[in-house]
Amino acid sequence: MDFLCMIKNRAVTRRYEDKSVPVEIVEKIIDSGVWSSSIHGFQPWKFMVINGKDKIKKISEIVSDVPVDIAGDSMGKLVNFSARVIADAPLLIMVYNTKAFTNAAGKFFKINREYIEIAQMTEIEGISGAIQNMIMMAESLGVGSCWLTTPLFCESKINDFLNITDRLVAVITFGYSMQKEVRSPRKNVETKVNYVR
Ligand SMILES: Cc1cc2nc3c(=O)[nH]c(=O)nc-3n(C[C@H](O)[C@H](O)[C@H](O)COP(=O)(O)O)c2cc1C
User: Fold this and answer.
1) How far apart, in whole angstroms, are the C-alpha atoms of residue 174 and residue 134?
2) Fewer beta carbons within 10 Å, N or C terminal of the chain?
3) pTM listed for this prediction
4) Cα separation, 127 vs 47, whole angstroms
């Protein structure tokens, strides 16, 4: 399939078959992530692959336990919704920001608040590129996915459970799609782009 068609046809998957994703496919997904571009080649990402049912269940429970006073009522419902997506998935890739670049920027360059903010932003941009690579790589291999950020409300509990201190950027669920969702419509492209001639 042509690449643009694949981008347009990919729909988020929140219901998965009870079937694991083979190791060779997981390795290709990770490989596509690490080959993403990053600021000055700092590669500020770290990935944690979780495919054990008990671990996935525990993470889902942590996410479903988010206190309403942290997330708010309607956001709390969305976080709970993510917990169900996690519970259903045979594979999670937890995406972390090691802050390799902001740490280096703070140490070696003149510390300037505005510059640090730019450094933080560029790290997240690089990591987002890695996430999108992994989602599209998976799609090309017939594996569906869902990019989740609502679990970030439970970051400290998830990190305690996984014994990790890096910042959690996203949880991506992967698996064979039981039910693909319909893509949301796109706004007219003219409202989103300006050509300056
Ligand atoms: C940065 C980002 C964060 C997202 N976080 C969540 C989430 O926490 N929970 C969820 O169910 N979907 C999440 N999604 C998936 C979107 O909601 C999903 O792409 C959308 O519902 C389907 O729209 P689409 O047709 O444009 O893909 C996230 C997507 C992106 C890009």
Assistant:
1) 10
2) C
3) 0.95
4) 10
The CA distance from 59 to 54, in Å, is 9
CB 150 near ligand 1, within 6 Å: yes
Contacts of 52 (CB under 8 A, 6+ apart): none
Ligand 1 near 149 CB (within 6 A): yes
Match domain 3-191 to its CATH number in 2.60.40.10, 3.40.109.10, 3.30.420.140, 3.50.50.60: 3.40.109.10
Q: Which atom of ligand 1 is nearest to the CA of 14?
A: 11
- pLDDT tens digits in sequence order for the chain, 197 residues long: 699 999 999 999 999 999 999 999 999 999 999 999 999 999 999 999 999 999 999 999 999 988 767 767 778 788 889 999 999 999 999 999 999 999 888 776 666 677 888 889 999 999 999 999 999 999 999 999 999 999 999 999 999 999 999 999 999 999 999 987 999 999 999 999 999 99
Cβ of 183 closer than 6 Å to ligand 1, yes or no, is: yes
Distance 170 CA to ligand 1 centre (A): 11
Q: In what order do the strands lie in the sheet with 167-175?
A: 45-50, 91-97, 167-175, 144-148
The residues with which 47 forms a beta bridge, in sequence order, are: 95
